[in-house]
């Protein structure tokens, strides 16, 4: 007598659903590197990183924090050696004492033009319990001058911010992955206490 195994339709459906997932383990099989084993894509020259601007954040002191750091998107796809690049950032001061951004420097550009809120050249005031936004249009702003390297979307360069009181911090500033209007400029929450 032959015994026939009866299959449940739900079991067949589950088996069919798991087969495509098993194929997602990577192109090279068990020996292929995982995501954690790959080099940092920001360190690989020439490759565009898909996935957007990581928006680095860094605390300079307990009160001064730089957020949403990035370099302007290149309209033709690449910033070339010798070009000037606008720097975007939000600087939050949650303390009760103001400070000043006195210098921005780095090895991949010749200098930086700091333009305070009044439009003159000089230092940028960081008032107590307030945010300062270095944005694409209008002061306050920072322009990195005379790049010494080519940069594409999402590639980054180290940038050092020097404050009069808080000291300095060096951060990786990535080129934003989308032109303004397509991506959002992420500003930190207003640190000013509500009355």
Structure description:
The chain is mainly β. It is 7% helix and 35% strand. The protein has one helix and twelve strands, in the order H-E-E-E-E-E-E-E-E-E-E-E-E. The strands form three sheets. Strands 1, 2, 4, 6, 8 and 9 form a six-stranded antiparallel beta sheet that branches. It starts with 8 loop residues before the first helix and ends in a 21-residue tail after the last strand. The relative contact order is 0.22. Residues 1-42, 47-54 and 180-185 have low confidence and may be disordered.
Q: On the 0-100 scale, what is the average pLDDT?
A: 74
Described by its quaternary structure, the protein is single chain
Tell me the total number of β-strands: 12
Helicity level:
under 10%
State the separation between the terminal residues, measured CA to CA: 86 Å
Task: List segments where confidence is low: pLDDT < 50 over at least 5 consecutive residues.
Answer: 1-42, 47-54, 180-185
Counting DSSP H or I runs of 4 or more residues, the number of helices is 1
Radius of gyration: 24 Å
Q: Largest sheet, described in full?
A: 6 strands, antiparallel
The SSE order reads HEEEEEEEEEEEE
Shape field: globular
Decide which structural class fits the backbone: mainly beta
